[in-house]
Amino acid sequence: MKLRIGVFYALTWFFLILLGGFQQATGLLPPEIGLAQWGPGIAALLMILIFRKDGHKITFFSKDIPDLRYLYTALIPVGVGLIVFVLKSFLHIQASATPITYDAIWRMIIWMPFGALGEELGWRGYLHKKLNSRMRGLFSSILVGMMWMPIHVAFFGEGAVFLLFLALLIISYAIVIYALVEDTEFNVILAATFHLFINLTNLLFLDVMHETSFMLVNALAWFVVAGIVVVMKKKIFFISKA
C-alpha cells in the first residue's frame, strides 16, 4: 500500500510540474486554464497500467445513484459559498487583487469541468478509493486532504498562517466529498460535480482569495460543515477496516 501511494504521489508531482512547465513555456494556453490539474488524473491512469494485478477500477458512472444525489452534491458548495459571501461582506474583508477580466472568467468556466475531472480521477478515483480499503474514513480523508493541499502552489507565498487555514479548508473538502462518494465506489463524476461547483463558487472570491482573513472565514465555515457531516455519518468515518 505504501509503495502504491508513494508512486502515485511522485507521478502526480511529476505531471504537475511537466504540464505546468509546458503551459508556461509554450504559452499555448491562457494562464486561467490550469493544465496541471490533470496531473493526478494521468498519475492514476498510469498506476492502473503499472499495477494491473491490483485490479483497481475507477468508477465513472453508477446507475443506482439518484439524480437528487447530483443535485445536492452541487448545492452544498453553492450554499456554503453564499454563507461565506455573507460573512465576507459582514466582516468587510477588503479586496487586495485586481478583479479578473470578463473574458478570463469565461475561459476559466469553460475549463473548470475538465480540470475538476482531471483532479478527481486521481484524488478520489484512485487515491482515496485505494486508502479506503485499509484506513478509517476520517483518517483517510485527512491524509488525502494533506496530500491534496500542496498542489495549490499559487498560495505558497501567502505565509504560514494562510497555509494552515488552506490545509484546514482542503481537508474539510476531502471529508465532505468522502461522505458523498464512499457508498458509490468513489464515483468520479459525482466527486467532480462537487469539485466543479466549489470552483464555480470561488469565482465570487477571486479578489480576496489571497487574503488571510478570507481564508480563515472560508476554512472555518467548511470545517463546521465537515464536522456536521462526520457527526451525521459516524459509521462511515469510524468503522474499522480490515
Q: In words, what does this structure look like?
A:
With 242 residues, this protein is mainly α. It is built from nine helices and no strands. It has one domain. The two termini are 13 Å apart.
Structure, briefly:
With 242 residues, the protein is an all-alpha fold. The protein has helices at residues 2-26, 39-50, 67-90, 102-132, 137-148, 160-181, 188-201, 212-232, 234-238.
Question: Please, how many domains?
Answer: 1
The global form is globular
The major sheet is characterized as: none
Number of strands: 0
Question: Segments where pLDDT lies below 50 for 5+ residues?
Answer: none
Name the features.
242 residues, mainly alpha, 9 helices, 69% helix, 0% strand, globular
Topology:
Layout: H1 2-26, H2 39-50, H3 67-90, H4 102-132, H5 137-148, H6 160-181, H7 188-201, H8 212-232, H9 234-238
Helix pairs in contact: 1-2, 2-4, 3-7, 3-8, 4-5, 4-7, 5-6, 6-8
